Structures are given as structure tokens and as C-alpha cells.
Amino acid sequence: MSEPSIDPSIENEPHLQRRHFEADPSEQAARRNLRAERTDRNTLDERVEHGVWDEPGLSRELSGGAPAWGITYRDWLARRRGETSRSETWAVTIAVAALAGPWAVLGVFLSRVAGVNVYVGGLYAILLAPVIEETMKVAGTLYIVEKKPYFFRSAAQIILCALAGGFAFACIENVLYLVVYIRNPGAGIILWRLTVCTAVHVGCSTVAGLGLVRVWRRIWERRERPDLTLGFPYMVTAVVIHGVYNALAMVFHAATTGF
């Protein structure tokens, strides 16, 4: 294999060669993509998702703002909110709240089918299960906050979705434990699952929901794209609380004969 030339002269520059210059094929794809951005072939949501008009160097102060065919996140946000009625926001809220719990249960089952459920000294119950469950319970709410924040008009709608997800998940889990997993459960275990276990699921989901409220409020305060890192500490807190509870429950189970 020949070594690359180190000739410092300019005769080897592509535009000075006798042979026909061949452009990079990717440039043609880029040209087509840019042409599509200037047409109605892309939806408004796609244009703002892939647009560059929120970059600091393209601010209104420096460049005069987006052209007629472009759109900023601020303008998109205002337009979508104006097009969305309050009844539509509540319809979305109710749908997300109703599906959050079953979706989380499905996520847990799929994780087990995929082989995630590996019991090594209870590590799954303490480390993996809390992450999967708390993430899945607010997954739908997170999607709305990140991609379509105009579907929420108040923080109460976000908290409702998070709370409903935790409560529905707890109800489904309680039925599975008390009817399928545990044979002839005693009054103590029934009372424990209906009170303590339900409170843990609802409480942790609500904590995660508070993080999403923080993200959502920042969007509307600054009219900027969502910063999901603002909600990360709340999610971590929910996962830690859930993991600590699972660890204590396992210790209690091992130390008693009634469970």
C-alpha cells in the first residue's frame, strides 16, 4: 500500500486536476433534505424537531430570526398551544393516566421475558426493578412533556398522570400477588399490600412526576426546548426510595415467618 503524498505544492488540489471533480454523494442527500425543509413535505413538528433556528448564532438579535419557511421552538410552542383546546388537553391527560399503570406492568413483563429478571442475591428487586417500574410508570407523561408539552395546561395534570400510573400499577400488582403468586394469603399480607405497597408505588410515581413538572414549567417560563436533566434528581429519588423499600421488605421477609 503506497504512502500518502506529502508534496506541499498546490498542483494536487482537486479543482486543479485534469480529471473531472466528483462531489461527495452525501452532498446530494443534504441538498435534498434542505430542499424538503423549505417545502410543506415536512410537518410543522418535524421542521421544529430538526430545525436549527434556535441556535445561539441564529438568534433574532444576530440574524434577524428564522426565514418564512423556518420556525423556532418558541413560535412552534405558541402556535400549538393556540391550536389545542382545554378539552383536548384533558382528553390526553385522561388517556395517559389510564394507560400509565398497564403500560408499566407490560414493561416489567417484557423485561423479564428479555432476561433482565436475574435474581442474584436480590439485586433485581433492589436495583433493577425500581428503575424499570418507576421509569415505565411515567413514560407516557415524560413523552408528552418532552415532545408535546402544550397538551398539559397545568402542573396538576402531570401529577394526576403520575399518581394514576402509580395507583394502577399497584392495583394490578396487588391482584397478581394476592391471587396468583401467593396461595391463601393471610389478613396481614393483604393489609400490607393494600396499604404500604400501594402507598410506595403512588408516592414514588408522584415524586417522579414532580420532576416532570419542573421540566414542564421551565419550558413555558423560558419558551425553550425541554431540559430533562432538571427532572433527573426526582427520578433518582423515586428509584432510591423504591429500592430501599424493596430491600427492607426482603430483610423483613427473611426475619419473620408470617410473610
Q: What's the number of helices?
A: 10
Structural class: mainly alpha
Which blocks of ≥5 consecutive residues have pLDDT under 50? none
H/E order of the elements?
Answer: HHHHHHHHHH
Helix content: 55-70%
Tell me, rounded to a whole number, the average pLDDT. Answer: 83
The portion of residues forming beta strands comes to: under 5%
Quaternary structure classification: single chain
Could you give a short description of this structure?
The protein is an all-alpha fold and 259 residues long. It contains ten helices and no strands.
Report on the structure:
This protein has 259 residues and is mainly α. It has a domain of 177 residues. 67% of the residues lie in helices and 0% in strands. Helix 8 packs antiparallel against helix 9.
Write the layout of secondary structure elements.
Blueprint lengths: L24 H13 L6 H7 L9 H4 L9 H11 L2 H28 L9 H15 L1 H9 L7 H27 L5 H36 L9 H24 L4
Helix pairs in contact: 5-6, 5-8, 6-10, 7-9, 8-9, 9-10
Key terms:
single chain, 259 residues, 10 helices
